[in-house]
Amino acid sequence: MNPSTVPPASTPDPDRARFYADDAAWYASRLRIEDYMESIEQATQRKVTVASFDLIARARPDVQCFNELLIQYPIATQRQPGRIIPDNFVVVHPVPLVAGGSFAVDVQPVGPLLVLEYVSKHNPRKDYEDNFVRYEQALRVPYYLLFYPDNEELTLFRLVGGKYQSVPPNNAGRFAVPEIELEVGIEGGWARFWFRGERLPLPAELADRAEAAEQRAALAEAELARLREELARRPGGG
Hints:
The longest helix is centred in the last third of the chain and has 31 residues, at about 205-235.
């Protein structure tokens, strides 16, 4: 069953949840320093993604974005769960999901709708070919976005008949995830996001807009004061 369509569990199994929490703690204790290192390109793109989905969540609270969080999933042939850490992943659920140190797909009411990974040749810390297979076959994530900042290459895969197929760009040259009213394309060297047809601004761009609005307001106030002063100087004015 696709984790994204798993019906909400009425009562999560506390023992199962504890099992995943213990496994996540064990896994974290075995990570090396280099496992925590990332390239500037990866870190920057994750900031762009998180800031964009923060804006989406204001209009669509059901769209929830997680940042470099361990995903755990059951494997029938072994006791230990499978583990994978995407740069970002997105779930859709009307209630905020609680995910502390990990996201266990058979404990959570839904699984990822979209996973996003940013590949840098300067930091080969992940086996992306293996990740592709796990997202496709083990987790069956409906959408997988792969971005190479080094050469500005962006590919969106969609799960069709159990296999990933690349999604062609739309007329605007962007890749669509209609379930969350999202499009993604490259602009300024980064993967940028459009929601309901509008490009989502970054914090610096929002600050620039606010500053420009303040400047326009100050100019308008100054012009209004000038007009008042001019009227006051006219005969019969004031």
